[in-house]
Amino acid sequence: MSEAGVQRGKRTAGRPPQDASREFVTPEGVDLRLRIGEAGERAAAFLVDVIILTIALIGVSIVMVGVLAASRARGVEVAAIVWLLIAFFLRTFYFMAFEMHPSAATPGKRMLGLRVIARGGGRLTADAVFARNAMRELEVFLPLSFLFSQGDGVDAWVVLLGLIWSGVFLFFPLFNRDRLRVGDLVAGTMVVKAPRRKLMPDLADERPPGAARVTFTQAQVDAYGVKELHVLEDVLRRRDKATMRAVAQRIQGKIGWEGEPVADGEFLAAYYAALRGRLESRMLFGHRRRDKFDRG
């Protein structure tokens, strides 16, 4: 079986340039295909989150009005400052709290099937979440404050500057292939599609009838490790006849198999079950063979 290295952001040959899918192949040979969240999807998710924040702020405003009415409108200035502080912390920590959750998605992102991940393929850290959301103040809320301050003694050129600023940050994701906003660029994150998928059936329970008559010696099963097991599982799930034929011939040559002729799918299914059983039994005793080169 061919060696699989880590490949990030590599396009499959023959795909159109506008294709938004990316391939992440782990050192164990697991091929993870992810689709980048489109700008329209991200904008819709942000709009949903803004609506939720607006409803929360309306609730806060109603409570503040009730407090002022009970105190006969005393301390209006203090109430206004408190409202501004609540609005700031609400819009700031709303995004951070949800994206630090294991789902790494706000309610808006969940509705659109999106989530935040680290571009390097590692764990999404609190520092990255803080950085990408802190930048939102500069990208969205600060220029918006310029725009809505028109008529309060703010010069027209300041409002124009706010419009230009908003436009630069608004259209920035359209000019890079991974649809990154500036916050993503700074934090090393990206937003991808995370659709709900059904749990795939266990291949060990779906062996073809003919696979039961194929047997292997312990030496033949010990030819490969965990990495090759994952690659073989992927081959069996794809069911591509040409690939299965090539992999079956490669394994048979590697282990020196001289059994009776059998279909490629049956051979691979039998070898998968034998290899998996052997690796699992070794792991019970603390031995984990990473790949065919690991002799530990």
TrEMBL record:
Keywords linked to the UniProt accession: Membrane, Transmembrane, Transmembrane helix
Taxonomic superkingdom: Bacteria
Keyword Membrane: yes
Descriptive protein name: RDD family protein
Compartments, record wording: Membrane
Stretches assigned to the RDD domain: 38-188
PANTHER family in the cross-refs: SLR0254 PROTEIN (PTHR38480)
Membrane-topology descriptor: Multi-pass membrane protein
Region annotation Disordered: where it falls in the sequence: 1-22
Segments crossing the lipid bilayer: 43-69, 76-97, 156-175
Main location: membrane
Presence of the UniProt keyword Transmembrane in the record: yes
